[in-house]
């Protein structure tokens, strides 16, 4: 369970440096992970982004200091990373529903977000259906975008990308071009960890053997050993629920690690709102 210990070390590092400017890159290094895979694992297991965790923890500590000391509000604002009292007051009110001044006068209730401790569920209460397959390289055609990991832009941008391909007909066109072994539309995530590059490449495409239409691009997925996990139930909730089960139960119980090459979500051309909708998660393993 080395990866669980690495994740906890990263949390301990964040807690020890809450008063400093720290980047996701620094935190990921402590976990011996790429930014993308650390960010992904953290948000799946905790239901919160790294940036939101840091913000909520800092504002929780700021609230304690407001109530228990006579330190000036401006000094507390600067201590917890806010350049102006106005910026601090806006963020503080958003979290606690009261202003810093009201908190100091004991008006209203405060929200405390406590330090995280990672606990992994090894009970396997809900069975997981998966298979291990080896697959040669294959072609995906579609559209791609690059998303920065800075300020977790990718977490906001990828859902908007899906909305657009559904709205402009790209999703339907991809389904019509699907003549490969993998059936449906694919979400492909490529970790572009090159030097100081802080971004990922995300594709929405399909497995196709055909010539590439002019407005599409192509990517070749390398030969891999894959963990193929069944996802049952309607979108959007079933997919993140299965991701959480994979990281909180399956990986800690098996000898495999994520291989670091592109991972896939496979969406068949059925009604995604159907309670019996079937989709898959493909994770490259080593």
UniProtKB/TrEMBL annotation:
Annotated protein name in UniProt: AraC family transcriptional regulator
Keywords: DNA-binding, Transcription, Transcription regulation
InterPro entries named among the record's database cross-references: AraC_E-bd, Cass2, Homeodomain-like_sf, HTH_AraC, HTH_AraC-typ_CS, MarA-like, Reg_factor_effector_dom_sf, Tscrpt_reg_AraC-type_HTH
Any coiled-coil regions, as ranges: none
GO MF, one example: sequence-specific DNA binding
Residues covered by the HTH araC/xylS-type domain: 8-106
């Amino acid at each position: 369970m080395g990866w669980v210990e690495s994740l906890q070390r990263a949390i301990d590092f964040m807690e020890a440096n809450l008063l400093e400017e720290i980047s996701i890159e620094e935190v990921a290094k402590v976990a011996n992970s790429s930014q993308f895979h650390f960010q992904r694992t953290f948000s799946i297991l905790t239901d919160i982004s790294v940036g939101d965790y840091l913000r909520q923890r800092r504002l929780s500590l700021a609230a304690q200091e407001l109530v228990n000391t006579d330190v000036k509000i401006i000094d507390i604002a600067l201590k917890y990373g806010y350049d102006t009292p106005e910026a601090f007051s806006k963020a503080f009110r958003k979290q606690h529903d009261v202003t810093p001044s009201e908190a100091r006068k004991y008006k209203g209730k405060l929200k405390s977000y406590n330090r995280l401790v990672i606990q992994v569920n090894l009970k396997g209460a809900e069975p997981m259906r998966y298979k291990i397959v080896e697959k040669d390289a294959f072609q995906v055609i579609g559209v791609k975008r690059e998303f920065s990991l800075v300020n977790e832009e990718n977490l906001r941008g990828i859902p908007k990308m899906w909305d657009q391909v559904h709205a402009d007909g790209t999703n339907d066109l991809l389904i019509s071009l699907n003549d490969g072994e993998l059936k449906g539309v694919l979400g492909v995530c490529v970790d572009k960890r090159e030097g100081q590059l802080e971004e990922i490449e995300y594709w929405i495409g399909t497995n196709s053997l055909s010539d590439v239409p002019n407005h599409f691009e192509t990517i070749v997925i390398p030969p891999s050993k894959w963990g193929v996990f069944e996802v049952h139930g309607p979108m959007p909730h079933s997919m993140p629920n299965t991701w959480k089960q994979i990281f909180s139960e399956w990986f800690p119980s098996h000898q495999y690690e994520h291989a670091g090459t592109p991972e896939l979500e496979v969406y068949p051309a059925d009604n995604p709102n159907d309670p019996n909708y079937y989709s898959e998660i493909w994770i490259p393993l080593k």
